[in-house]
Amino acid sequence: MNNKYLLDHLRSVPDFPIPGINFRDVTTLFKDPECIRIMAEEMYEYYKDKGITKVVGIESRGFIMGAILAQRLGAGLVLCRKPGKLPAETVSQEFSKEYGTDVIEIHKDSITEDDVVLIHDDLLATGGTIKAAWDLCRKFNPKKCYMNFIIEIRDEGLQGREFIGNDIDIMTLLRV
Length: 176
Fold this sequence. Notes:
- By secondary structure, the protein is an alpha/beta fold.
- The chain is built from six helices and nine strands.
- The longest helix has 15 residues, at 33-47.
- The protein is globular.
């Protein structure tokens, strides 16, 4: 979609968090009310007729637009968090990262077989975290899953979309 207004408000931070990385900072989008309106409207228009019943927001920036989308779609919000952050019984998914493994969790009672799930995160790069979130959601056997992002990074040879595969509808607002 690559809305020019959003692209103009997206900050790039060279050499963060390590040399050679060009970090895309979505906080500059969140601080501008017009950016929030544009993002919410574009995502809502794409998903409004898909029957979404739950939006899974991935810690932590995925909580922001995840909550906005859930409200606009009339859906519930499910928090996908790092271990030990959720107070009730959870279901976990371990996944590989560049330098080891990590784990994400959601509450055991968050998703049912009747749900249509939209998994939201701010950024698609390598795809590890979002694929783990999708694997986690599939443990609940929902009717259908969708996935979306504010930004998909393609210009640094990252292959997140390919890592995830073709078995899920993926929507991104910005591709850089």
